[in-house]
Amino acid sequence: MNRSFTSLTIAFGLALSAAMANAAVGTTTLANGKSVYGAAASASQAAKVVDVASAGTLNVDCGETVTFRNGDKSFSWKFDVVGHRVVDLQAIAPAGFSSKPMKVYVARNDGERN
Predict the structure, then answer these.
(1) Residues 56-85: pLDDT tens digits?
(2) b/e per residue 79-112 (b: at least 16 CB within 10 A)
C-alpha cells in the first residue's frame, strides 16, 4: 500500500474520531471554530421575524435565516445545523439578549438528500 495513502487514511481516521468525540461531549463548535448550529446573518437575509416574548418554540428548515426580536434588541441567525439538532436560543443569542427559554426545531430542507 502506498505510504502517503496510508498516512492520509490514518489522518482522516484521527480527524473523524476527534469529531465524533466532540459530538459525544456536546461541543457546540466544529474543528474549524464554526458553530454546529449555523452562523450569524444579516437581517436582510431573514425569511422570518420572531418576537421572542410571544414564542416558546419555532420550526425552521435547515438553511433558513431568522431574525429574533426582544424589545429593542434583535439578531439574525442562519440555521445550518449539524444533524438537524434542536437549538436552544440561549446557545446562539448574544449575551443579555433574553433569559426566556426557547427551542428551535430544525428540519431538513427540500434540497437535502435523505
Answers:
(1) 899 999 999 999 999 999 999 999 988 888
(2) bbbbeebebebeebbeeebbeeebebebeeeeee
> For the chain, how big is the Rg over CA atoms in Å?
17
- CA pair distance 85, 79, nearest whole angstrom: 10
Q: List, as one string, the DSSP characters of the chain.
A: --HHHHHHHHHHHHHHHHHHHHHHTT-SB-TTS-BTTBEEE-GGG-SEEEEGGG-SEEEEETT-EEEEEETTEEEEEE---GGG-EEEHHHHSPTTS--S--EEEEE--TTS--
| pTM as predicted | 0.72
Cell (9 digits) for 107: 428540519
